[in-house]
Predict the 3D structure of the following.
Amino acid sequence: MNQIGLEHCLLLGAVLFVAGIVCMATKRNAIGILMGSELVLNGANINFVAFARYNETFAMEGQVFALFTIVLAAAEAAIALAIVLNFYNNHVTVDVDAAEELKG
Amino acid sequence: MNVAELLFWITALLTGLSAIMVVVTQNIVRAALWLLFTLAGTAGIFFLLGADFVGATQLLVYVGGILILVVFGVMLTAQGPFVNLKTGAGEWAVSIVVGLLLFGLLGISILMTEWNFTPAPSIEPVQSRLANDLGLSLLGFRDATPKADLPIGSPGEPPRERTRLAYLFPFEIVSVHLLVVLIGAAYLARAKRRKGPAKS
């Protein structure tokens, strides 16, 4: 059995990233799209922390950037849910295909 | 295989499979449940990688905050019984092909790259970075990278020593950003004033 290296963590981050991308592409529920973006941010966070662990040069940077990402993801989730609730109040649906008022 | 590697494999499998199930499932409440497992598994990976404070923050902010927010969003936007939000088969096929291609690209580029970092330790119990170090580096009282010899300054000059280069300014920006976001979210989700004559 190989030892756990940097590649394993990066591959796990890639799995989360691709799952988030596909989730954002396939879901028609706006909250599902929000979940996809959370998955993408988590994949990036795993990469940050893995580099902080395996490269002594970035021992502090990786964790600091991961903290910033978590905080900004929280802000993004709050704003996105507020927009989704507003959209639901106006259209009585959360289907993003119905959001075409800005279409030219 | 020691205990740490076994724990890593279990946690990584849990995290990856839950992430895939978030995509596959069609019920939005079940997707939220699988997302809970994914986020908790990510926190476990952080603990195993020696990032205790980041893992605890992940648990507090994601599992305790964002997920509750998402579940409340699901409950507040309940669908009627005849609304169909399923994805078509053609869309599924295209998305899966694109996702597999993207994952292949990422995996090949990860595995083909030579990550020649000088100490390449395996997973083992390490002295974890304490919250004290993180706080000091956010406030600027600690060198950001202890062993970094990245040259700064214009090329041609001899590289200067990096001293007291830390993250006070991004910390302030994030703080103001959070304040603005709170005000904006409260403004967006406020109770609407009713149009027409008031009934009472």
Remarks:
- Chain B touches chain A through 88 residues (CB under 8 Å).
- The domain at 1-78+123-128 of chain B is CATH 1.20.120.1200 (Four Helix Bundle (Hemerythrin (Met), subunit A)).
- Residues 16 and 103 of chain B are 13 Å apart (CA to CA).
